[in-house]
Every structure is written in structure tokens, then in C-alpha cells.
């Protein structure tokens, strides 16, 4: 939504500008990272000049480490946001994927470029072309996430940045 995209952009810019901020964590509410975009809202976002791709590039270019704390699901644009982060921690029950291909859409925020760089072309092609949802344990084996935890991902992300 426009509200989420604007909050991501504003929060990242504030964090990068604030010397007291050492790292940024992106997480969802109520046990869900992000189910991605509602396709009915695509045209309204374009009219307002907000696009997910440039915001993910902003995440990727952040001077501070950015950690995705993935609980529940990270699908479509939600996974693309996580791919832009420097580190990804997933709950053992989390699922990730790019399901938009099942309705004839390609991932539109450079997920088709970031995913192969992260996990290799064969594995990425499988996920991109099938829309398959990948469980956290498989995502760890593929290199899609850096760590899988059974406890709270937010606490695990905080612990990770304290170790840096």
C-alpha cells in the first residue's frame, strides 16, 4: 500500500541520516512479514509516483545493515523487500515465494535479478517460474535466508546486529 511504501522510504532515510542508528530491521505485524501487493492498487501507486523497486534499491544501498525479520509469509513484493535487505532471518514456520507468476505477472521490483544473485540461477528459475512457496528450512539450504529460528525473529534480528 501507499502507506507502507511511504513509511519504508521515510524510515530508511531517517535511519541513514541518524548517527545513533546502528542498524535497521524490517518486520511485519501479527506474525506476517508481507503477502505482497494487492494488484488492484497498482495503478493508484503509479499515479502517486511511489514504486516498490526504488524503495528496495534504497534498502540495498543503506549505509546501515538492514535485516528482514520474516514471520509467516514473505510473498511477491514482500519477498522482494526481503531480498533487498542485507540479512534475512526467518521463523521456522515461514514461507517465501513469488506467486504472482501464477496469475501471469512477473515480479516487478527486480526480484528476478536479486534472487538468482543470491541463490543461483537454477533454484531461482524454479521459484520465479512456478510461483512455488518455499518453507524456511529449504530457504536456508538455498541461501535465501541467513538464519532460521524457532523463537521471535525480531529478537533474533536484534541479537544478530549486536554481534556485528
From TrEMBL:
Pfam families: ECH_1 (PF00378). It catalyses: (3Z)-hexenoyl-CoA = (2E)-hexenoyl-CoA; (3E)-hexenoyl-CoA = (2E)-hexenoyl-CoA; (3E)-decenoyl-CoA = (2E)-decenoyl-CoA; a (3Z)-enoyl-CoA = a 4-saturated (2E)-enoyl-CoA. GO terms for cellular component: peroxisome. Coiled coil: none annotated. The keyword Isomerase applies. GO terms for biological process: fatty acid beta-oxidation. It comes from the Eukaryota. Keywords: Isomerase, Lyase, Multifunctional enzyme. GO terms for molecular function: (3S)-3-hydroxyacyl-CoA dehydrogenase (NAD+) activity; delta(3)-delta(2)-enoyl-CoA isomerase activity; enoyl-CoA hydratase activity. Belongs to the enoyl-CoA hydratase/isomerase family. In the C-terminal section; belongs to the 3-hydroxyacyl-CoA dehydrogenase family. This is Peroxisomal bifunctional enzyme.
Amino acid at each position: 500500500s501507499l502507506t507502507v511504501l511511504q513509511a519504508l522510504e521515510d524510515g530508511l532515510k531517517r535511519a541513514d541520516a541518524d548517527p545513533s542508528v546502528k542498524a535497521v530491521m524490517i518486520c511485519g505485524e501479527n506474525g506476517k512479514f508481507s503477502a505482497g501487493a494487492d494488484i488492484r492498487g497498482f495503478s493508484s501507486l503509479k499515479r502517486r509516483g511511489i514504486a516498490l523497486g526504488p524503495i528496495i534499491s534504497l534498502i540495498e544501498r543503506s549505509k546501515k545493515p538492514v535485516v528482514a525479520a520474516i514471520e509467516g509469509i514473505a510473498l511477491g513484493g514482500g519477498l522482494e523487500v526481503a531480498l533487498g535487505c542485507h540479512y534475512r532471518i526467518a521463523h521456522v514456520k515461514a514461507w517465501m515465494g513469488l506467486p504472482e507468476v501464477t496469475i501471469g505477472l512477473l515480479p516487478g521490483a527486480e526480484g528476478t535479478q536479486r534472487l538468482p544473485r543470491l541463490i543461483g540461477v537454477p533454484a531461482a528459475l524454479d521459484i520465479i517460474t512456478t510461483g512455488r512457496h518455499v518453507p524456511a528450512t529449504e530457504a536456508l539450504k538455498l541461501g535465501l535466508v541467513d538464519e532460521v529460528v524457532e523463537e521471535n525473529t525480531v529478537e533474533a534480528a536484534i541479537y544478530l546486529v549486536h554481534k556485528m
